[in-house]
Amino acid sequence: MVTKSTIMDTNSFRAEHAEQLDQNTRRLTDKRSEVLGESYRLFYRNPVHLVKGQGQYLWDASGQKYLDVYNNVASIGHCHPAVVAAVHEQMQNLNTHTRYLHENILNYTDELLKTLPSEINRAMYMCTGSEANDLAIRVAREYTGGTGIIVSQEAYHGTSELTSGCSPALGSGQPLANTTRLVPAPDAYRLGGEDLGDWFADQIQQQIDDMQANGIRFAGFLADSIFSSDGVIPNPVGFLKKAVDVVHKNGGIFIADEVQPGFARTGDAFWGFGRHGVVPDIVTTGKPMGNGIPVSGLLAKHDVLAAFSDQIPYFNTFGGNPVSMAAAQAVLKVIQEEELQLHSQKVGAELKHELTQLMHKHECIGDVRGAGLFIGFELVKDRESKAPNQALALDIIEELRNTHRVLTSVAGPHGNVLKLRPPLAFQRQDIDWLVGALDQTLTKLKRSF
């Protein structure tokens, strides 16, 4: 039996929900199935038909307004005017590939590298995070001479052959590569009094030893520093450092997948890895970089990248094109000029505080954890056993969508952690909408659990 994908199937529309849909929604879901095939997934038992976005808000086809508490694609807010203007202006002049000279890619790279440790001083561009992680794995293998990659138990790093082979969250229908090894999530909530840094470093070493015993040379550790697919695991600050030291001691490199924690999201640092006091060998990014325009990047230490780039030509037709670079430049400028890192830190702390207060009223809330505007809200059957309550979590997100017009989803191996990750346009006044909706939803659903 094929195990369902934790990131694709946990909160999704399925055929058995079709009878409950209104006529127009049913028509659209049937058409999607007919022309797009069966691999795609829609959120919610009653899918949302969106037609407009502005900042942290979305509107559906019937004019209903929603609060977006999930979308890091439009990282600085839906349809941000600065991005719209930058893309429009560049589209009127030129859009072509990177085999011609153009200033945008150079100007953006200069500004982006200023946000990184000085050791990271080279950049390459693609269109998606999957492409960036795919290239990162290739670079790691060229630099180290190894093939073995370590990822966390529920990691998601992309959809290409290389990255899906390192993405256990896709489920057993997508087999892992025989050179991939998994480490348990560094779940401080369940590990209790363990020294998380020592524990996690030991888990990494065990998998390196296993590779060696099976004739596999270690190449690197690929991780999202907030472990979002594992259930949002941000703390304690600094726990990753000992693991990265073990990686380097064994001749491997650390690839920081910053698609989710990067670009000021965590508030404490511009990049998620910065909270842990480490310098990655490679940094990858994607979605939040262009606020909806497809663009991604690989940023690396010169000597690490040279092992690949000095030997192998690389070309990505749309990667680094002038329009995508214009969008990326606008996003970076907005983050800096609107001080969105500080905003994320302050508003995220207030949101986390208000969510934590709900624990006094609702025993089903096991843990509230996060950094900046990236918060995990864990639902349990009881606090003593910490047994995951997926059924409740899924009912909550449906109630939030249907009654309160709040959009979010779940994460973690058991699908019991609400993943609260709004656009950075999220404001203090939105806290009341979200927290009030959660409070009312939990009160209503108490009767059923």
UniProtKB/TrEMBL annotation:
Recorded superkingdom: Bacteria
Query: Per UniProt, what is one GO molecular function of this protein?
Result: transaminase activity
What does the record give as cofactor? Answer: pyridoxal 5'-phosphate
UniProt-listed InterPro entries: Aminotrans_3, Aminotrans_3_PPA_site, PyrdxlP-dep_Trfase, PyrdxlP-dep_Trfase_major, PyrdxlP-dep_Trfase_small
What keywords are assigned to this protein?
Pyridoxal phosphate
CDD domains named among the record's database cross-references: OAT_like
Q: Does the keyword Transport apply?
A: no
Q: Which PROSITE patterns does the entry mention?
A: AA_TRANSFER_CLASS_3 (PS00600)
Coiled coil feature spans: none
The keyword Iron is assigned to this record: no
Annotated family: Belongs to the class-III pyridoxal-phosphate-dependent aminotransferase family.
The protein here is known as 4-aminobutyrate aminotransferase
Mind giving the lineage of the organism this protein is from? Bacteria, Pseudomonadati, Pseudomonadota, Gammaproteobacteria, Moraxellales
